[in-house]
Amino acid sequence: MLFDNDIKEIIATEEDIDAMCKRLGKQITEDFKGKEVVFVGLLNGCNPFFSDLLKRVELKVQVDYMRASSYHGTIKSSNEVKILKDLDLSIKGKHVIVVDDIIDTGKTLKAIVNILKYKGALSVTSCVLLDKASAREEDYDAKYVGLVIPNKFVVGYGLDFNEYYRNLPYIGVLSEKVYEG
Ligand code: IMP
Ligand code: MG
Questions:
Q1: Engineered SS bond to 140: which of 35, 74, 106, 122, CB 3.0-4.6 Å?
Q2: Which ligand 1 atom lies nearest to the CA of residue 138?
Q3: Do 113 and 140 touch, CB atoms closer than 8 A?
Q4: Which residues, 6 or more positions from 128, have their beta carbon under 8 angstroms from its beta carbon?
């Protein structure tokens, strides 16, 4: 398999990911029936989860993106969350669902959710593919979670190390030898 030597353990196969997208899409479809919903994807990690999830959501929704600063060629989270790309749409009076690849310390999602509430959203809910629940440093949890994983650095299916590995179709634990050199 591609990058086989850099990945030491598979966390979720393509089939696992597909099943998670179906389950989350169905749940969101039921929970938001008849509501005005804006999906906000957090770039770059939200792709391809964002597209695969949206295909499973049977609602008339609007779609927009934000970009927040996070890891920069390191496997450690930075403390400050900066907005590098803001929304184009107005979310005033609308239900917002924020989508990201993973929740780790919770700093990114907590900060983004507060910004979206300040912008006048009727409600702000988050949906992540992966949840490193044991790494949380903030009092914030995502409502919709694909899979709870251990506190290990993972890549693939949108998740990167130094912008590499985003194109892996599965999610795996990155071998220490890649970042320890
Ligand atoms: P948080 O603010 O600590 O919750 O971090 C969230 C962001 O950190 C995510 O959007 C990811 O971009 C990045 N991140 C956290 N854990 C991992 C990982 O294991 N692999 C790749 N990126 C990660
Ligand atoms: Mg990210």
A1: 106
A2: 4
A3: yes
A4: 99, 100, 101, 102, 103, 109, 142, 144, 145, 146
- Side chain identity at residue 11, one-letter code: I
Alpha-carbon distance of 96 to 131, in angstroms, equals: 20
Per-residue pLDDT tens digits for 83-95: 999 999 999 999 9
CA distance 102 to 154: 10
The edge-to-edge listing of strands for the beta sheet with 83-85 is 83-85, 61-68, 37-43, 95-103, 123-131, 144-148
pLDDT digits (tens, 9 = 90+) for 32-85: 999 999 999 999 999 999 999 999 999 999 999 999 986 544 556 566 788 999
